[in-house]
Write a structure and sequence with these properties.
7 helices, two-stranded antiparallel sheet, alpha+beta, 222 residues, DNA Binding (I), subunit A, 6 strands
Length: 222
């Protein structure tokens, strides 16, 4: 029989681990609690130090597959090098379990979920705005079956690159996303096909071909 850390014996001792020579290490419950707390603190420090050295743009994304065929799940305190890699089967199982767990938690904690959502939206207005734009654009593209998916991070970077200036008139006005090649003309819903344009320019352009519109506003002289 293989024991797991935390298993208790009838005499009140708790299993900690197996020794290097194959023996069993049992300790009193008070010592187990202290040892667990100390171990958790050490792991937490190691985890924070590790995460502090990784820039956001260099962090591994969940679902990334390495050369050994393992799939990245996420960063975790208890994992070797703080990186949790799983086999394809384990990744699928964990993904399905998490989806069911999240759904169940959301159904049982609707008020809590709404409170956390409103709090996050209030504390992260720009991220929330980018997320809402991404959801709307992706929904439109799915309906038209144009293909392509845009993320809130890509939209945030594009807005920062635009410096709050309209792509067409170079005016500092309230901006909205415009597909350079409109979805109606077969344009894909990708960040490479998007610019930030003011409301006036976006309304004037509508679903026009970009070359045609560029001639209308004097941006193209041929």
């Amino acid at each position: 029989m293989r024991f797991k850390r935390g298993d208790k014996r009838s005499d009140g001792f708790v299993f900690w681990s197996y020794t290097s020579w194959g023996g069993e290490w049992w300790i009193k419950e008070e010592a187990f609690k202290e040892k667990s707390k100390s171990t958790k603190e050490k792991l937490s420090i190691r985890y924070k130090q590790k995460m502090a050295t990784i820039p956001n743009e260099s962090k591994i994304k969940r679902g990334f597959e390495n050369e050994d065929g393992l799939i990245f799940w996420g960063y975790h305190e208890n994992a070797p090098n703080c990186e949790l890699w799983l086999s394809k089967e384990k990744f699928k199982e964990k993904k399905e379990w998490k989806a069911k767990h999240n759904k169940k938690w959301a159904e049982e904690n609707k008020d809590r979920l709404n409170h956390l959502k409103r709090k996050w939206e209030k504390n992260n207005p720009e991220k929330h705005r980018s997320l809402q734009i991404a959801i709307k654009l992706n929904r439109r593209a799915r309906k038209k079956q144009n293909g392509g998916v845009v993320t809130s991070l890509e939209i945030k970077k594009l807005k920062s690159k635009s410096k709050n200036v309209c792509f067409y008139c170079n005016q500092n006005k309230k901006l909205s996303i415009d597909h350079v090649i409109p979805l109606k003309l077969g344009g894909r819903n990708e960040i490479s096909n998007m610019v930030f344009a003011c409301i006036n320019c976006n309304s004037r352009k509508q679903a026009k071909d970009p070359i045609t519109y560029a001639r209308e506003i004097g941006r193209l002289l041929i």
